[in-house]
């Protein structure tokens, strides 16, 4: 189904972040006061929590589809705390995203990072490491005699 309520703000974080999930939980009487509690209740099959997850999945899917339409990546890797939410039902997120991908020849893979909440930190550290040891392709080695 379509998203049942409008996002509270114009930023992506405000529509899929922790506070957005907790606002939806409060509106739908989901017994969860934290992201971790929400994940536990949703995994246990609480109907209201699964309804909140579906709204969240639709919002995430819309954001992912916008990125995909612009950049056309082969894979979308979801990291950090969003990956924990995503893991509640990855297929539901993919199904919502796939509605937007129907005109693409080959939609991207959408998956959670194996690094979980540390994905962003590991990615930044890897990029800094790569840049620190990179040698420019057009540079000549300098030898001193």
Describe the structure.
The protein has 145 residues and is mainly alpha-helical. 57% of the residues lie in helices and 6% in strands. It has seven helices and two strands; from the N terminus they run H-H-H-H-E-H-H-E-H. It has a two-stranded parallel ribbon with strand order 1-2. The model has no long low-confidence stretch (mean pLDDT 82).
Helix-strand pattern, N to C? HHHHEHHEH
Specify the oligomeric state.
single chain
Largest sheet: 2 strands, parallel
> What global shape is seen?
globular
Strand order of the largest sheet: 1-2
Helix amount, in percent? 55-70%
Number of strands: 2
Structure described in brief:
The chain is mainly α. It has helices spanning 12-16, 18-27, 35-43, 47-71, 80-86, 90-101, 119-133; strands at 75-78, 109-112.
How would you describe this structure in keywords?
single chain; 145 residues; mainly alpha; two-stranded parallel ribbon; 7 helices
Please render the helix and strand layout as text.
Elements (H helix, E strand, L loop, with lengths): L11 H5 L1 H10 L7 H9 L3 H25 L3 E4 L1 H7 L3 H12 L7 E4 L6 H15 L12
Parallel strand pairs: 1-2
Helix pairs in contact: 2-4, 3-4, 4-6
């Amino acid at each position: 189904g379509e998203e049942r309520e409008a996002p509270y703000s114009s930023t992506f974080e405000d529509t899929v972040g922790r506070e957005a999930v907790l606002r939806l939980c409060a509106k739908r009487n989901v017994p969860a006061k934290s992201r971790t509690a929400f994940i536990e209740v949703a995994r246990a099959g609480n109907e209201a929590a699964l309804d909140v997850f579906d709204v969240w999945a639709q919002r995430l899917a819309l954001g992912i589809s916008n990125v995909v339409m612009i950049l056309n990546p082969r894979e979308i890797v979801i990291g950090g705390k969003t990956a924990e939410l995503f893991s509640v039902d990855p297929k539901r997120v993919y199904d919502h995203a796939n509605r937007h991908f129907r005109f693409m020849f080959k939609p991207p893979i959408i998956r959670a990072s194996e690094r979980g909440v540390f994905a962003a930190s590991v990615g930044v550290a890897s990029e800094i490491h790569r840049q620190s040891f990179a040698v420019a392709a057009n540079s000549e080695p300098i030898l001193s005699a």
